[in-house]
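Progress note, sequence design subtask.
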C-alpha cells in the first residue's frame, strides 16, 4: 500500500485552476491571464475546500463521480471529477476535470497530475 501526499494549496491550486499558466514567462502575464478567473477571487478557505476535493479525486478508485464543494461564507463553489489513470513519460498519472465558480464567473478545464516521486502528486499541465 502506498500513501498519497496531499497537495499544497498555494502551489498547486494556482497552477491547476488558471488555464494557460504553463509556459508563461513572466508574472505580469500570469496575473493578466488569471485576473478574470474564479480562482483569483477565492479566499484561503475557498482554496482549502477545493484542494480537499482535488486530493480526494486523485485517490478515488472510480472515475466520473463529481466531488462538489461550496463555501457557505462566499459565492465560491465547484467540483472535481476523477477521470482516467494513465502512464506518461514513465510516471503514474491521473486526469481531473476541475470546475470552479465565483458568483457568475465560471471556469473549467482538464488537468494532468502525475506522481513525482510516487506518492507526491504534481500538476504536469492542462490536458
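Output:
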Amino acid at each position: 500500500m502506498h500513501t498519497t501526499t496531499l497537495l499544497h494549496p498555494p502551489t498547486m491550486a494556482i497552477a491547476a485552476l488558471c488555464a494557460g499558466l504553463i509556459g508563461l514567462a513572466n508574472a505580469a502575464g500570469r496575473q493578466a491571464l488569471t485576473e478574470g478567473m474564479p480562482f483569483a477571487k477565492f479566499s484561503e478557505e475557498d482554496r482549502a475546500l477545493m484542494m480537499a476535493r482535488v486530493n480526494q479525486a486523485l485517490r478515488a478508485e472510480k472515475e466520473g463521480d463529481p466531488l462538489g464543494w461550496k463555501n457557505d461564507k462566499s459565492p465560491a463553489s465547484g467540483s472535481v471529477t476523477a477521470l482516467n489513470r494513465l502512464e506518461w513519460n514513465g510516471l503514474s498519472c491521473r486526469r481531473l476535470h476541475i470546475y470552479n465558480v465565483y458568483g457568475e464567473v465560471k471556469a473549467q478545464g482538464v488537468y494532468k497530475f502525475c506522481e513525482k516521486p510516487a506518492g507526491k502528486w504534481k500538476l504536469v499541465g492542462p490536458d
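The helical segments are 9-17, 27-34, 38-41, 44-59. Work on this subtask will continue into the next period as scheduled.
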